[in-house]
Structure formats: structure tokens, C-alpha cells
Amino acid sequence: MPDLYISVLNRPFQLYTDASATIVGACLAQNDENGMEHPIALYSKKLTIFQMNWSTIKREANAILSALKKFDCCIYVSQIQVVSDQNPLTFLKNG
């Protein structure tokens, strides 16, 4: 299991998300002063029966939104790069 690192608020974060048919998950990461990426926090949540019936893209979008809500206390003043394997979600670039 990787070691978790303490975040530095003036550095950008990377948010990796993914969704399966039953679970959403995320990893919040940040680069150190040498450019080495380290995990800051991990998150996973079981989907409800209702959510399991959603399309793949809707489950993937839910993974992003759930992770942003979960990590809000860490990232609310920082730049965030969201990394997802769903190309249609790239329209969510700036907000």
C-alpha cells in the first residue's frame, strides 16, 4: 500500500477517478517539489441499486462529483486536474 502524503495548498492537485458497475473510486494526488507524484487521499463508495442502472458515462461523472465533494476541504482553493478514462467528460474542463 502506498504511503499517503500531506498536501501543500499552493500546489495543484490531480484527481484520478473511475467507476465500475457497482463502485466509484478516486485518488487525490499531488506532485512534490521534485515533480514526483504522491497520493494524498483515497475514496471509494458503493453505488445504490438505482445508480447501478445508470449509463457508464453517468457513473463516471458521479465518480468525479462524489470525489470533488469528498475532498472539498482539501481542494477548494487549489487548481485541480481531473483524470478520467471517459473522453466525453472532457467538456467539463473549466467551472
From TrEMBL:
UniProt keyword terms in alphabetical order: Endonuclease, Hydrolase, Nuclease, Nucleotidyltransferase, RNA-directed DNA polymerase, Transferase
Q: Which GO terms describe its molecular function?
A: endonuclease activity; hydrolase activity; RNA-directed DNA polymerase activity
- A Pfam family annotated for this UniProt entry: RT_RNaseH
Q: Where is the Reverse transcriptase RNase H-like domain?
A: 10-93
Q: Organism's domain of life?
A: Eukaryota
Protein name as it appears in the record? Retrovirus-related Pol polyprotein from transposon 297
